[in-house]
Recover the amino acids of this structure.
């Protein structure tokens, strides 16, 4: 193939790739409509989020198969429907408020 022709083809491909890159990065807008709408309505949620129901077993990757130690700290308690709806154990969880709670989860993933 003629070196001059090859150089011209390569230069044109470079320009096409550059224009395609600029077009793809500058022309789109975020399409996360459902999440942004829910955030705009926060804390006045009246319906469930539009997600599909899970089907079948949850399968973990092999690298997650282990005994895991997990720690969490309860920093706040809220009862938005109180006193109309009373949940069991709500008052009993006050003992966990300021302290971390650690647990072992044996063989996560199997």
């Amino acid at each position: 193939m003629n070196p001059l022709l090859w150089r011209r083809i390569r230069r044109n491909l470079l320009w096409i790739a550059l224009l395609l890159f600029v077009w793809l990065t500058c022309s789109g807008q975020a399409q996360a409509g459902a999440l942004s709408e829910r955030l705009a309505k926060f804390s006045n949620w009246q319906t469930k989020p539009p997600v599909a129901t899970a089907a079948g077993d949850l399968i973990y990757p092999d690298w997650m198969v282990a005994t895991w130690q997990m720690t969490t700290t309860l920093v706040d308690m809220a009862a938005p429907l109180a006193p109309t709806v009373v949940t069991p154990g709500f008052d009993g969880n006050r003992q966990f408020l300021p302290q971390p709670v650690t647990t072992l989860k044996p063989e996560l993933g199997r």
In short: The beta strands are 66-73, 100-108. Residues 58-110 form one domain. The first strand starts at residue 66 and ends at 73.
